[in-house]
Structure formats: C-alpha cells, structure tokens
Amino acid sequence: MANIQAQSRLLAILNLLFSGDTVTAQSLATQFGVTVRTAQRDLDQLQALSVHGQLLLRRIPTRPVGYHIDLNAQVQPGVVLMLEKMILQSRTLTAVELQTALNALQQLTKNSALPSLQQSIAEEVANYEPIVTAQNRARLIWQLQKAIEQKRHIALTYVDREASEWQAPETLLVVPLAISFNGQYFHLSVHVEASREIRDLQLDWISDFQALTQTDSAQPDPKVGARRRLQAYGYRGKTIKIQFEYYGLLEYVYDRFPTAHVLRYLPGKHNPWPFRVAVVEMDVEYSTGIRMWLITQSPILKVIAPQNVVADVKAHLKLALARYEEDDITN
C-alpha cells in the first residue's frame, strides 16, 4: 500500500511538472499531506533520472528552491517504462485516458525504444480493467482546478454511494478547495455553503457540474494537504494520538503516516517475524479509514491506546470473526 501511494504521488507530481508548473518541496508537502523531507526525497528521485547528461528535472535557484521539467530533453526509456507500469497498476484511468497517457509518455523518449516499450506492456494493456466507476474525467478535473484557482463557486449534483445503496442525489453549492488522489480514486475537497462544512467528494460520483460567476475572496483555509497526512483512504475524522505494537517493517508505517515515530522497542516480546517489536505513536484523524487500515494490519499490529480505539478495533475484528463462525455452524 505504501509503495502504491508513493508511486501515485510521483505520478501526480509529474503531471504538475508536465503541465508546465514549477513546484517546491514546501508546496508539494502541503498539497500531498507529507513532510517537506518526503517531498524533497520525491524531487531528488525525479532529479536523479538523467538522460544523456541532462536532468529530467531542472533545479531553479530561488528561495524556496523551485523545480520544473525540461520538456526539450528526452526521457530515458526506463523512466517511461516505470511510469507506464505505475499508471497500469493504479487502474484509475479509463481505456481512452490510458491510451492517451501511454502515447504521450512514449513520445518523450527516443523512437528506437518504442518497440521494446510497447512489447513490455502489451499483455497488461490487453488485460487492463479500470475501476468500476472510472469515467473520462480529464476535462472535469481541469475545469475544477481552474475554479479552485479563481475561487469560484460551483454547483453540482452528488450521490454518496458509500452512504447507502439507495442514496438520493443531492444538489450542492460549494467552493472547491483541492483535488487529491489516493491511489485509485480522485477526490474534490469542498466548502459546502449551506452547512459551512468541509467535505471530500469522490470525483466519479459528481454530475451536472456548473461553474458560477460568484467568487469567494475570503475562502476558508482547510489545510487540506496537511490534514491528508493524518487520514487513510480519504476519510476525515477527529485528530487524536494512537499507539500500537508493530511487528513488521517500520518503513511501511512511516511512508503511510509521516507523523509516526517509535516510542520504544520491546526486546522481550515474541515476534514470529524477523523484526524487533516496536511501540509506535502517530497523530491521525480517527475515522472509518484509519480503522480499516488498522484492521488490515492486524496480523502485525496491536492497538494499545487510547482505550476507545482499542475497543473499536476489537469490536470490528470480533464482528468479522463471527461471520466466519456462522459459516462453521451452518456447515
């Protein structure tokens, strides 16, 4: 999961750069909800991809230091192949969007590499299955981004399909704040005029989008990027500190949650895996998303504080076990 999120972040950064934007580690940290150190590591990784002595990513000696893509330089075939594999793995693009992206990437490298590039992904392209809700959204994303820059109000229809199978559509008047990507789905963070709350809307569940002439000069500051580092799967919640014993590779936790840090190690604690057992603490917005992450890690993770989170995770694990025990009784 951590690797997929890092790959998705690199793709999003490259999308900004190929659009002609100049970025800084600070701006990326805010936008993607990671530390400045992590954002700088992403930029260093991209800058290290050199082609014929030229750098794919150019460093601008400003304060803070800026970076932009030299679109006149050819990209190494290996870099193009990595990006293609990352795009195919995410499954977020429609077939049309996928082919457009692959063609654009292959135009960035030398012609002699094209047969190998096309052959290397032929089987994956032939068997490509986009996510169920995928739709051609490039135009919508760009319109939303311009509305964000101009602080324009927008009207839209939204169906929260996660709330219920029979959820009714709702018409919202909102101020768009930020577009994010969680590895498979795009989300739009908005300030809802009627309720004065911040909500995250899944882009594929939005319809009847209309940009209005009204602008908002006093747009609220939701700190969307900073809060994202505390969230999982795009869910919002109440900010708390949680502690847990971790029995696996700590890098996966650090990459997923930048606020995580080790409080102490438990040298006498038995671990069937070849790692030291660590007590980890991190700040999170506790929500359905954080609970889901904790449960998916349950073979190598035990929540120890606070007690309400311990009880919540235990209850859901018991519920899951009960479903399997029902099968045993039936059979």
CATH class of the largest domain: Mainly Alpha
CATH superfamily of the largest domain, by name, is: Winged helix-like DNA-binding domain superfamily/Winged helix DNA-binding domain
Query: How many H/I helices?
Result: 11
Q: The CATH topology of the largest domain, please?
A: Arc Repressor Mutant, subunit A
Q: Summarize model confidence as the mean pLDDT.
A: 83
The helix/strand order is HEHHEEEEHHHHEEEEEHEHEEHEH
Oligomeric organization of the protein chains? single chain
- Rounded to the nearest angstrom, the radius of gyration is 22 Å
**Which structural class do you get from the secondary structure elements?**
alpha+beta
In whole angstroms, how far apart are the ends? 35 Å
Helix content: 40-55%
The CATH architecture designation of the largest domain is Orthogonal Bundle
GO molecular function, one term: DNA-binding transcription factor activity
Domain HTH deoR-type: 6-70
Keywords: Transcription, Transcription regulation
Protein name: HTH deoR-type domain-containing protein
